[in-house]
Amino acid sequence: MQHPLWCGDGRAMNDQPDTLRFHIRLERPDATIVFEAREDEYLLYSMIDAAIESPYICEQGWCLACAARLRSGDVDRSDALTVYPEDADAGFILLCSTKPRSDLVLVQDEHGTRREMTQHRIEHNQLARAYPPGARSRFRRGRARANTGGR
Ligand code: FES
Predict the structure, then answer these.
(1) What's the CA-to-centroid distance between 33 and ligand 1, angstroms?
(2) From the CB of 121, is ligand 1 less than 6 Å away?
(3) 96/90 Cα distance (integer angstroms)
(4) Is the confidence at residue 6, as pLDDT, over 70?
(5) What's the gap in Å between 2 CA and the centre of ligand 1?
(6) Can you list the domains of the chain with their CATH numbers?
(7) What percent of the chain is predicted at pLDDT more than 70?
(8) Taking a C-beta distance cutoff of 8 angstroms, is the pair 43, 95 a contact?
(9) Is the C-beta atom of 62 inside 6 A of ligand 1?
(10) What mean pLDDT comes out for the span 89-101?
(11) DSSP H helical ranges for 1-134
């Protein structure tokens, strides 16, 4: 595991200087929050670094606790244990396993978006009751940068 050394300006000394950072606008029922997210980190952890609370459980893209909707922008969802094109068509993302590829506008109701995504998967017969075939060999949990050495 890589431990950061801090520069004093919020940047880790071992950050790559050419790492892209994107502006994320998160619209919630009670507030709109703006934060910065690295291209090489899952959105959930950029939120945690910015002291923004969000529900999460599995940190693997499986339980749907961290569901949000993508209103605009481009993301990489490919690290989620469960990822379906129908989710993307409906604008759902899982913050624990999605990396930004541009500035984003996200919508999240911490109490409602998980239910909406669960219902969406039920309607498309995609609600995972067990790990998908082969998922165990891709096991990861937590930050993207801390897990890249184990792949
Ligand atoms: S925390 Fe489980 S899907 Fe994100």
Answers:
(1) 20
(2) no
(3) 18
(4) no
(5) 23
(6) 21-141 (3.10.20.30)
(7) 83
(8) yes
(9) yes
(10) 97
(11) 43-49, 85-90, 113-123
**For residues 71 and 37, what is the distance between their CA atoms, to the nearest angstrom?**
16
Proportion of the chain in helix, strand, coil states, percent, rounded to 5: 25, 20, 55
Among 94, 114, 115, 140, residue to substitute to test ligand 1 (most atoms within 8 Å of Cβ): 94
Closest ligand 1 atom to Cα of 61: 3
Q: Which atom of ligand 1 is nearest to the CA of 81?
A: 3
pLDDT of 18 strictly over 90: no
- Nearest residue (CA) to ligand 1, atom 3: 61
Residues 6+ apart with CB under 8 A from 124: 84, 86
CA 9 to ligand 1 center in whole angstroms:
30
CA 8 / ligand 1 centre spacing (Å)? 31
Residue type, 130: A
**Confidence (pTM):** 0.84
pLDDT digits (tens, 9 = 90+) for 55-70: 999 999 989 999 999 9
**Token digits for 143?**
């930050």
Asked if 9 contacts 19 with a C-beta cutoff of 8 angstroms, the reply is: no
